Amino acid sequence: MKIIIPQQVIDCISKIGNRTKQESGYKVYACLVIMSKRKNKHGYFPVPSSYLEKVNKRHKSILITLQEASIIKPFTRIEQHPELLFESVEKKFYNVSKGICMKYKFLINIKQGIIRDIDLDSNRKFRWFSLIENSINELGYFGKITRDTFGRRVHHPVIPIYKEDLKNKGLAIIDAKCSQPKLLLNIMKEKKIIDKNYEEAFETDFYTYLVQKLNLVDRKEAKDLFMYFLNSSGYVPNYKIHILFPITSKFIKSLKNKNYKDASSYLQRIESKIWIDDLLENIPSDFAIPVHDSLIVKNNEANNILKYCKNKYPNIDFTISLI
Q1: Do residues 302 and 173 make contact, with C-beta atoms less than 8 angstroms apart?
Q2: Contact in structure between 59 and 23 (CB atoms under 8 Å)
Q3: 173 - beta bridge partners?
């Protein structure tokens, strides 16, 4: 990847150690440039530590060096001093339990400097990457395999065409019934947050429950409503969903306290950890292709892989169907 390196960055990184550490410094800087595409109106952008760790496990020292050189600035807020009643302190703000990571902004112009080619393809060292590459190649497809920074979802050439192009080719798909609603329920249970109505909705079918309780037309309208409920900045087509799920509504609102997109990013990241970093990375097969919250597998292996998924995550309602 070609990245513009300003002179201030070159001067800073040239002082941080040997050539290996300097290369790591440029990689961390390149990651910051990529993440800056998601900056808010104040110039701050999220920087997940898990993302940087894949580039360099000692990224914290590099971040500190860039801060000391006034190249980046962390997002902070004023809080009450933990010991002195009438004093306050400035602290970096992040919340791991809510999926709110550290945010930074650039204090320099990052669009002027020397263009340098930085190798950031850290995904190649993982089994899931080679598994996808070999699987799509086996089907006759070639192209880039990438992972986004918003929800850590994996993208590849087969995703937009698999429903039509892979029909009747001896493949099946394993996915999760009501994936994001159930994922949200599981997260709330882990945090001891109880919403009786929301839990009741899964005793039959979540979307059918919404149709019945909110007098909706069909499951599609129910799915669309839930996506607004989870991902929008506030507007939902039917406000009664907030009344139906009051505790869930407050929890989602807490995830959006800095940016309404944080809730969507948070759930997608947890979803990706399950499907990519765990299920796909450790799958008992040499063939598997992910499609966000599902896996394309071979028919003759599908039942064994379904059993593997259920054993790992008994709180997810996995389903299987032929393509």
Answers
A1: no
A2: no
A3: 296, 321
Residue 175 near residue 163, CB atoms below 8 Å: no
Please give the structure tokens belonging to residue 299.
Answer: 């028919």
Cα distance between residue 50 and residue 123, in whole Å = 13
Domain ranges in the chain? 2-117, 123-323
Residue pair 170/297 in contact by the 8 Å Cβ criterion = no
Q: Please tell me which residue, 225 or 79, carries the higher pLDDT value.
A: 225
What pLDDT does 80 receive? 59
Q: What is the pLDDT of residues 291-304, one digit of tens each?
A: 999 999 999 999 99
Contacts of 286 (CB under 8 A, 6+ apart): 131, 134
The per-residue pLDDT for range 4-51, each reduced to its tens digit, is 999 999 999 999 888 888 999 999 999 999 889 888 888 998 888 877
CB atoms within 10 A of CB 281: 14
The DSSP output letter for 278 is I
Cβ-in-10-Å burial (0-12, 13-18, 19+) of 94 comes to: middle
User: What's the whole-number average pLDDT of the chain?
Assistant: 90
Q: Encode burial over 210-248: b for 16+ CB neighbours within 10 A, e otherwise.
A: bbebbebeeeebbbebbeebbbbeeebebeebeebbeeb
| Residues in CB range of 22: below 8 A, 6 or more apart | 13, 14, 16
